Each structure stands twice: as C-alpha cells, then as structure tokens.
Amino acid sequence: MCSVVVSVSAPPVKAQQDHTKKEMPVAVIVLLTILCSAIFILVTTLVYKYWQKRKREQDQARFLKLFEDGDDLEDELGLGTII
C-alpha cells in the first residue's frame, strides 16, 4: 500500500519539474518579443527622422532654386538695373 501512495504522490513532483522547465522558454519568448519590439520602434523612428531631414533638404533646395531662376529672368529682361 505504501508503494501505491508513493507512486500517486510522485507525478505531482514530476509535474512541478516539467512546469518549471516550461516557464523558462516562455520567459525567453517574452524577453525576445520585447527586445524585437524595441528594435522595431527604434528603427522606425530613425527611418522617419531620416525621411524628414531629407524632405526638408529637398524643400530648401527647391525654395532656393525659385530665387535662382528668378535672377535669370531678371537678367534676360533687363530688370536688374531698374529695381
């Protein structure tokens, strides 16, 4: 009878050991998920800032080109000496 009691109480101990083994991969998966999310947010932010900088530079170049083209027109019409 004692051997039956021991065998009945043995599975819960084994179940506890299996339970702790399963927690470790879950913790690793959660950690990797958080790490990947942080990297994704960082890369997305950097790409967005780079895009804004590039767009700003293009807008400034376009703005300066407006005035450069205007000078050529004034020279062609001879308006530079009048103004």
Give me the secondary-structure topology.
Elements: H1 2-77
Structure commentary:
The protein has 83 residues and is mainly alpha-helical. The chain is built from 1 helix and no strands. The protein has one helix at 2-77. The longest helix has 76 residues, at 2-77. It starts with a helix and ends in a 6-residue tail after the last helix. 0% of the residues are buried. The mean pLDDT is 78.
Compact description:
Helix content is 92%, strand content 0%. It is built from one helix and no strands.
Q: Given the helix and strand composition, which structural class is it?
A: mainly alpha
State Rg. Answer: 36 Å
> Can you count the beta strands?
0
Q: Major sheet, described briefly?
A: none
Runs with pLDDT <50, length 5+? none
Strand content: under 5%
The ordered H/E elements are: H
Helix percent band: over 70%
Multimeric state: single chain
The total of helices stands at 1
Shape: rod-shaped
Query: Separation of termini?
Result: 115 Å
Mean pLDDT across all residues, rounded? 78
Spell out the key features of this protein:
mainly alpha, 83 residues, 92% helix
